[in-house]
């Protein structure tokens, strides 16, 4: 979204206004993973499935609005139906992470977006060659990926 909005390109939100996800800042994820590795190494946790997230849902629309506000742009948003099999509402249960790992995420969505936008601007300043249009379809495959793979296979 950041890349597209800065280029004044449209973004598509699949699932409409109600799609709710649990956005987690990367530093919180890393903290949880390190806590999990330590717990495994110490034998405190064995054969457990533990959710690492922030534990609060936000709509994808709200996320896009916050990114646009942080960038100081007016987003061009298209709403589309959810894709087949796509999760449309997810908020993680952190009870096991809190109990077993003492996991306590610190970075809420608004702060995480501000940090991500700042990082992106710094990265883009160092790598202006990456300022190209987004050309992937809804499954994340560039339109010409199939022809590239055929060309590689033929070599």
Structure commentary:
It is a single chain. Helix content is 44%, strand content 8%. It has helices at 2-6, 26-41, 60-71, 95-101, 109-126, 145-154; strands at 11-14, 20-21, 58-59, 77-80. The strands form two sheets. The protein has a two-stranded parallel sheet with strand order 1-4. It has a two-stranded antiparallel ribbon with strand order 2-3. The longest helix is centred in the last third of the chain and has 18 residues, at 109-126.
The backbone outline, from C-alpha atoms, is: globular
**Strand arrangement, largest sheet?**
1-4
How much of the sequence is in beta strands?
5-15%
Measured between the Cα atoms of the first and last residue, the distance is: 36 Å
Q: Detail the poorly predicted runs.
A: 138-155
Total number of beta strands: 4
* Biggest sheet character: 2 strands, parallel
Number of helices: 6
As a whole number of angstroms, the C-alpha radius of gyration is 19 Å
Q: Give me the strand/helix succession.
A: HEEHEHEHHH
Question: Overall pLDDT, averaged?
Answer: 88
Q: What share of residues is helical?
A: 40-55%
Q: Helices and strands: which structural class?
A: mainly alpha
Question: What distinguishing features does this structure have?
Answer:
two-stranded parallel sheet, globular, two-stranded antiparallel sheet, single chain
Could you give the topology of this structure?
Blueprint: H1 2-6, E1 11-14, E2 20-21, H2 26-41, E3 58-59, H3 60-71, E4 77-80, H4 95-101, H5 109-126, H6 145-154
Parallel strand pairs: 1-4
Antiparallel strand pairs: 2-3
Helix pairs in contact: 3-5
């Amino acid at each position: 979204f950041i890349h597209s909005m800065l280029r004044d390109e449209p973004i598509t939100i699949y699932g409409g206004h109600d799609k709710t996800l649990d956005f987690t800042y990367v530093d919180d994820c890393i903290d949880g993973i390190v806590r999990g590795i330590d717990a495994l190494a110490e034998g405190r946790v064995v054969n457990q499935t533990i959710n690492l997230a922030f534990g609060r849902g936000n709509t994808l629309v709200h996320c896009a609005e916050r990114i646009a506000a942080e960038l100081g742009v007016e987003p061009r948003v298209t709403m589309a139906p959810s894709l087949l099999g796509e999760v449309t509402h997810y908020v993680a249960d952190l009870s096991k992470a809190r109990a077993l790992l003492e996991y306590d995420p610190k970075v809420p969505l608004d702060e995480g977006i501000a940090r991500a936008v700042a990082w992106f601007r710094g990265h883009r300043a160092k790598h202006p060659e990456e300022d190209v249009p987004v050309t992937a379809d809804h499954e994340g495959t560039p339109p010409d990926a199939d022809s590239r793979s055929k060309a590689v296979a033929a070599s």
